[in-house]
Amino acid sequence: MTSSFQASTFLQTYQTEIHQIIEICKRLHQRNMLSAADGNISFKINADFILITPTGISKAFMKPEDIAVITQKNEILYGKPSSERLMHLEVFNRCPEAKAVIHAHPTTAIAWSIARPDLKKLPSDCLSEVILATGDIPFADYARPGTQNMGDVLIPFLPEHKALILRRHGAITWGNDLEECYRGMERIENSAQILAQAVALGGISPLPADEVAYLYELRKKIGNILL
User: Fold this and answer.
1) SS (HEC) of 33-94
2) Cis bond leading into 96, ω under 30°?
3) Cα–Cα distance between 51 and 29 in angstroms, integer?
4) Considering 9, 34, 75, 144, which has the largest number of Cβ atoms within 10 A of its Cβ?
5) What are phi and psi of 60, to 5 degrees?
6) CATH T-level topology, domain 7-222
């Protein structure tokens, strides 16, 4: 922690943002997208101050004083920040408009990455909601947790994609606020569940090619936001 950083004053100033992080963690836990000490959430106040969840603590039962504070240069100002923070910082460094990042472990989405290593993305041409709400949900290559490689594997997809599945690990979303990120994470898992059930019922089938093209054009008009 830097000697000039007044933690108590800072945490009091941004208590609204901290409580929102805690609330999002609880919602993710209730949806079975966070368990034990898994996952991490960050919110960028500015380049000098980024709130991020701590390492080694169950996020669903986190207290405000557990939150950590880092800079965009990976300087630790307060607390024990997530060991996977380099992934968050890669997003903030490559996507200037990013204000928040969520990394969670949506079970069905992860299962797709294990069962279908041949896929480059979740089969978006089967579901209009995937195209309209996210554009595509690509699979990023596996990276060893806690390493810079977790950020490196995101580079080919940034800033175009705001919702990604991390092979054999989890998923990540980023956006203009925490609610956008949360919507994206819900969308990833809900879409993965629908597609998995379709496979179990007999298989998946794409929409007609002209309809897929129409949906992608409509997505362009909506803009790069997670719905």
Assistant:
1) CCCCCCCEEEEEEECCEEEECECCCCHHHCCHHHCEEECCCCCEEECCECCCHHHHHHHHHH
2) no
3) 19
4) 34
5) -70, -20
6) L-fuculose-1-phosphate Aldolase (3.40.225)
In the beta sheet, which residues pair with residue 49? Answer: 46
- Half-sphere exposure of residue 123: CA atoms within 13 angstroms, side-chain side: 18
Distance, CA of 61 to chain centre: 20
Q: What is the DSSP letter of 126?
A: G
Cross-strand partners of 50: 44, 70
Kindly list the distances between the CA atom of residue 93 and the CA atoms of 186, 225, 226, in Å, as whole numbers in the listed order. 25, 19, 20
pLDDT tens, residue by residue, 136-172: 999 999 999 999 999 999 999 999 999 999 999 999 9
Amino acid at 220: K
Q: What pLDDT, in 10s, does the model give residues 5-53?
A: 898 899 999 999 999 999 999 999 999 999 999 999 999 999 999 999 9
**In DSSP terms, which residues pair with 220 in a beta bridge?**
none
